[in-house]
Amino acid sequence: MSLDNLRNLYQQVILEHYKKPRNRGKTSPVHRHQRGHNPSCGDTIDLTLQLDEAGNHIQDVKFEGEGCAIAMSSADLMADAMRGKSVKEALEMIQRFQAMMKGEAEFPKELRKLNVMQGVAQFPVRIKCATLTWHTLKAALELAHSETPEYVSNES
Ligand code: ZN
């Protein structure tokens, strides 16, 4: 497959998740709730998590919000990838995603769908769109149960 075809395929996947997200809404129950905002583009994300009883595994991830195709599809892809993962695995995946945005890593076969976001690394202004949902997830996982959600921004 040529590089251009591969790029088109990635764009298709991103647009498909933007137009037909699978993970929009709120988890039931809500164990974590975190808002994220990307001022440079105007993207907002409201992320909710359902954890197992011990709080060690992510059972469900849902998001609401408004934003560009990259921000919204990144959230949808992330939610798919996070279901069933342990908190430790999730934190590793967040790190890996951030490294991928610097062109330093990619995801293994079983998570390769996340690699469609690799192309975004070529457009520095859009990287914050792609990472917003991951920043927000990190904040959600670090939040103690039933704490009032704070607004996180990835502008720092
Ligand atoms: Zn954006």
TrEMBL record:
<dbReference type="GO" id="GO:0016226">
    <property type="term" value="P:iron-sulfur cluster assembly"/>
</dbReference>
<feature type="domain" description="NIF system FeS cluster assembly NifU N-terminal">
    <location>
        <begin position="10"/>
        <end position="129"/>
    </location>
</feature>
<dbReference type="GO" id="GO:0005506">
    <property type="term" value="F:iron ion binding"/>
</dbReference>
<feature type="region of interest" description="Disordered">
    <location>
        <begin position="20"/>
        <end position="39"/>
    </location>
</feature>
<dbReference type="Pfam" id="PF01592">
    <property type="entry name" value="NifU_N"/>
</dbReference>
<feature type="compositionally biased region" description="Basic residues">
    <location>
        <begin position="20"/>
        <end position="36"/>
    </location>
</feature>
<protein>
    <submittedName>
        <fullName>Iron-sulfur cluster assembly scaffold protein for SUF system, SufE2</fullName>
    </submittedName>
</protein>
<comment type="similarity">
    <text>Belongs to the NifU family.</text>
</comment>
<dbReference type="InterPro" id="IPR002871">
    <property type="entry name" value="NIF_FeS_clus_asmbl_NifU_N"/>
</dbReference>
<dbReference type="GO" id="GO:0051536">
    <property type="term" value="F:iron-sulfur cluster binding"/>
</dbReference>
